[in-house]
Amino acid sequence: MNDKKTYGFTTTILHNDRRKGIEHGSLHKPVHTSVAFGYSDARQLASVFQGKEPGFRYGRQGNPTVSALEDKVNQMEDGVATLCFATGMGAIGAVVQALLRAGDHVVSSAFLFGNTNSLWQTVSNQGMAVSFVDATDVANVAAAITPQTRIVFVETIANPRTQIADLAKIGELCREKGILYIVDNTMTTPYLFRPKAVGAGLVVNALTKSIGGHGNALGGSLTDTGVFDWTGYPNIVENYKKAAPRLWGIAQIRAKALRDFGGSLGPEAAHHIAVGAETMALRMERTCSNALALATMLQADPRVAAVYYPGLASHPQHALASDLFRSYGSLFSFELKDGIDCFDFLNRLNLAIPASNLGDTRTLVIPVAHTIFYEMGAERRASMGIAESLIRVSVGIEDEADLLDDFQSALDA
């Protein structure tokens, strides 16, 4: 390949491994299972440990297979550096472990994935303050900022009610205030949207979801976009200021979260995710198309009380989503009219599978209030607009006609 030529999204990801040079002409980066890496020169080993030259130290801190995936995700997000973790929550937890201290303050969107909400609740009990706000309006974020605010955290499309944060204006606010802006890009993926475009300093991706795409490997990543000025961040330890300033944050995260906390991604999982990533754009085109068709059908059915999908003109942030994203994502949720039992409805589906994952090749459904958001309690669910009958749908790549027929038949039965 011509390394000087600029290629499209899928072409770049598909050929990224071999552009770096792979043993024996393999088209995929091999699975390197070793946790230790030997050097013929002990001085070189010391130099690698001291960060004076590149190399692998120990499997917890890096691995050739994982490194190849990190480079692939970094290409997707147009970043300066990416770190991979065992799970998406491991990536978000790394932010807390490496970048926050007692007395710090976080402003977070109130519309969050359930486990992220739980993590911020834990953080608030450990000497750090967290303010939950309606991030669909930048004014709410601005009102919550204090002199101790270190991070603003939002999701692109909230799971499961699909609220969309005021992404660009929040980015402008964070830049003016010198605050680290972190965007979870899992619901959109780097194919539909790059948070760097709205000023995000760090980007989270749950690689388990649409990037891996086949429900066969857990993983997460943090990408430093190069947008944030780490020289103004007060929590960087002097020891990690040896590198170029734009790499201070990722250096501290690698040491304080990946090395010390040990949430490392294994090489086998990294290989599964890397192979899955090659077809992400193709899958997203199909799942987004299926999601729009299914959401449109359900919205027109009198037995459905509400449908929440950014691709529908009725969605409060439809115009914003149209401006920001290539398409509207593969996830939506809907409520059934009173008198229709959501469990009975789900049990009548033949293709859609009751399961808690999302971003899979198969369509997955789950009764939100009774499962993934059950632990937070009715009051917190109500504050997030999660009705007791809410059903989340992660749309797969099935044939559109089969998918529509499955949901129609379940409503008619």
Detailed description of the structure:
The protein is an alpha/beta fold. The protein has two domains: 9-277, Type I PLP-dependent aspartate aminotransferase-like (Major domain) (Aspartate Aminotransferase, domain 2, 3-Layer(aba) Sandwich), CATH 3.40.640.10; 282-412, Aspartate Aminotransferase, domain 1 (Alpha-Beta Complex), CATH 3.90.1150.10. It contains 15 helices and twelve strands. Strands 1-7-6-5-4-2-3 form a seven-stranded mixed β-sheet, sandwiched between helices. Strands 8-9-12-11-10 form a five-stranded mixed β-sheet, with helices on one face. Strand 5 (180-184), helix 8 and strand 6 (202-205) form a beta-alpha-beta unit. Helix 3 runs parallel beside helix 10 (267-277), helix 4 (88-99) crosses helix 9 (248-261) and helix 11 packs parallel to helix 15. The longest helix has 20 residues, at 280-299. GO terms for molecular function: cysteine synthase activity; lyase activity; O-acetylhomoserine aminocarboxypropyltransferase activity; pyridoxal phosphate binding.
What general form does the structure show?
Answer: globular
Count of all domains: 2
CATH homologous superfamily label of the largest domain: Type I PLP-dependent aspartate aminotransferase-like (Major domain)
Mean pLDDT: 94
- Which second-level CATH architecture of the largest domain applies? 3-Layer(aba) Sandwich
Structural class estimated from helices and strands: alpha/beta
| Order of helix and strand elements from N to C terminus | HHHEHEHEHEHEHEEHHHEHEHEEHEH
Stated plainly, the CATH topology of the largest domain is called: Aspartate Aminotransferase, domain 2
Total number of helices: 15
Q: Give the fraction of residues assigned to helices.
A: 25-40%
Spatial arrangement of strands, main beta sheet: 1-7-6-5-4-2-3
Share of β-strand residues: 5-15%
Enzyme class: transferase
Family: Belongs to the trans-sulfuration enzymes family.
EC number: 2.5.1.49
Keywords: Lyase, Pyridoxal phosphate, Transferase
